[in-house]
User: Fold this.
Amino acid sequence: MTMTIKKFWIVAFLVALGCAQTPEKQPEVTKAQKFRNMNPEERHIWMPPGEAELEKRRRNQKWLDQVAADLERLFMGYADILGDEIILENLLRGTEPQLQQLEARLDESQAQHEQRVKEMNQAVQEMEGAIGEMDSDLATLQKQQAARKVTRDDYRLAILLFRNGQYRKSIAAFKRILGKKHAPSLRDNILFGLASNFYKLKQYGQALGYLNSIIRNHPKGDKWLVSHAISGLIYNFQGQYNKAVSILETALKHRPNPDLLKIINRLLSLAKGGAVDASS
Assistant:
């Protein structure tokens, strides 16, 4: 009996000793070690961004929105500066020589008609018919030219629709202008109007197409530099930071005015920061 009690106390002591021991602390596993030890099929699981990353994105978005508003105000200033007299002069310049030629032809035919009237009545009747036919042709041609040429009201309507936020109607108006006969000096303004409308609709691919056309084909136009700025803004929105940096640095080499220079520098700073984040 005494031996049994001793064994009991020995067993109880060993059990208590085992419970009192502190378990050995396992070394902390870092996130990188967990990622390396992870099954390769599980490594592509998307991890949501942290609060710091979300706050950074919110700040960048707020900055981009402010830059976009500054560019829109700048575009409105360009539209106002474009004088009506210059537009009309450019529009009419291409049609005046044709009208003068037609008037000269009409005068010549009229002189021939008067000469033949003196010679014979039959010739007079024939020439009267010819003159009437030419008058009809001239009137028809003048109507066709009036329908095909761009007027001041056409351009004003397209701008007004843009200002009122009717972007699709403004696009239709600018495309009608583009399809009519217009002065070459007006073409970059038309393309810029189309690009601005597609930008407001967030159809960035369409907007970039018109902006690239201005950059390639109208280097001497007043919309060339601002087209670089808006292209840089769109590339920032799309996360194409290297393209944004390239096109904005090109614009800086051509000495933009102070207002546009400020916008380009802000966009360039944002694009370079995004490129660094994307590569890290």
